[in-house]
Specification:
The protein is of the alpha+beta class. Helix content is 16%, strand content 50%. The protein has a domain of 106 residues: Immunoglobulin-like (Sandwich). The longest helix is centred in the last third of the chain and has 24 residues. The chain is flat.
C-alpha cells in the first residue's frame, strides 16, 4: 500500500512541475515593428527584438516582407535574456499610392547554440500613407486536419458594390509548405461576391508541434488608392480537442490513473 502511495505522490509532484513549467511552444522572442513614412512615400522600418525568456537564444535571423519584396537583415548570433536590439531598414522602394500597406517580419532562431529545431516568430502590422483607408474585403481562416497534412480553408467576402482585383498572399512559418500553391494568387471579386479556397499544407519539420500561426494578406488597388487587410488564423495537425504540448500532462495523468486502479484492485482482492 505504501509503495503505491509513494509512487502516486511522486507522479503528482511531477505533474505539478510539468504544469508549472513554461511550455516548450511558448515563444521567448518579442517582436515589434515601427515605421516612419515621409510625404514622398519613403518608408523607414525599425524592427525591435527582445528576448523575454529565461535562456539565451541563438542565430537570430530576421527578415522583412514589404510591398512585394523580401529583405534579409543582419544575423544576431546570440540574444541573452532581457536583451533587446533594434534593426533599421530603409532600403525599400517608396510607396506611391495613398492608402494602407501591410508589413510582415519573420524571425527565425534556435534555442541551442549548435542548432536543433528551428523556431520562428511571425509578426504582421500595417501602415498608411496619407490616408488610413479600410479594406472592403474581409474573411476568415479555418483548418481541418488528417494528421499527415492539414487543409486550410479560406473564406473571403467583398463587402462593396465594386469589382476588386485581388492579390492574396499566404504567409506560412518555416517548416510548413503548401501543396500546389506558390503563396501568391491573383483573382477578381465582383461586388458582394464571396469566394472560398482550400489549400493543403504539410509539415516538413517541427514535428513536435501541431499548431502554427498563419497570415493571409489581401491587397487591391482602386481609384489610384491602395487597400490592404490581414486575416489571422491557425493551421492544425491534430484534432481541436488535443494539443501535443499537453502530452506530458496526459502521460502523467494516465500513470496516476493506473496506479489508483492497481491500488483499488489490491484492496478489492483482500476483501
Amino acid at each position: 500500500m505504501f509503495s503505491y502511495l509513494k509512487l502516486f505522490i511522486v507522479l503528482f509532484a511531477i505533474f505539478t512541475l510539468v504544469t508549472l513549467e513554461e511550455p516548450a511552444s511558448a515563444k521567448p522572442l518579442d517582436v515589434l515593428i515601427q515605421n516612419e513614412v515621409d510625404d514622398a512615400g519613403n518608408v523607414n522600418l525599425l524592427l525591435s527584438l527582445k528576448n523575454s525568456g529565461s535562456r539565451p537564444i541563438y542565430h537570430v535571423r530576421p527578415m522583412f516582407h514589404f510591398h512585394h519584396s523580401m529583405s534579409m537583415m543582419s544575423k544576431i548570433m546570440r540574444l541573452d535574456p532581457g536583451q533587446s536590439i533594434t534593426l533599421e531598414n530603409d532600403k525599400h522602394p517608396p510607396v506611391r499610392r495613398v492608402g494602407r500597406y501591410p508589413l510582415t517580419a519573420m524571425v527565425e532562431f534556435w534555442l541551442h547554440p549548435n542548432g536543433g529545431t528551428k523556431q520562428s516568430v511571425l509578426f504582421t502590422d500595417s501602415f498608411f500613407f496619407k490616408e488610413p483607408l479600410v479594406s472592403k474585403v474581409e474573411g476568415n481562416l479555418a483548418s481541418v486536419t488528417d494528421l499527415d497534412s492539414s487543409i486550410l480553408k479560406v473564406f473571403l467576402k467583398n463587402r462593396s458594390e465594386s469589382l476588386k482585383n485581388i492579390r492574396m498572399m499566404l504567409l506560412l512559418p518555416p517548416g510548413i509548405e503548401a501543396k500546389d500553391f506558390s503563396g501568391v494568387m491573383g483573382f477578381t471579386m465582383r461586388g458582394g461576391e464571396a469566394k472560398n479556397f482550400e489549400i493543403r499544407v504539410f509539415r516538413r519539420d517541427n514535428l513536435e508541434r501541431d499548431r502554427f500561426p498563419v497570415r493571409l494578406m489581401i491587397e487591391y488597388g482602386e481609384m489610384l488608392k491602395h487597400y490592404s487587410s490581414e486575416i489571422n488564423g491557425t493551421v492544425r495537425f491534430s484534432p481541436v480537442w488535443y494539443s501535443m504540448k499537453y502530452m506530458p500532462h496526459f502521460t502523467v495523468l494516465a500513470l496516476m490513473a493506473l496506479i489508483l486502479l492497481g491500488y483499488y484492485y489490491r484492496i478489492y482482492n483482500k476483501k
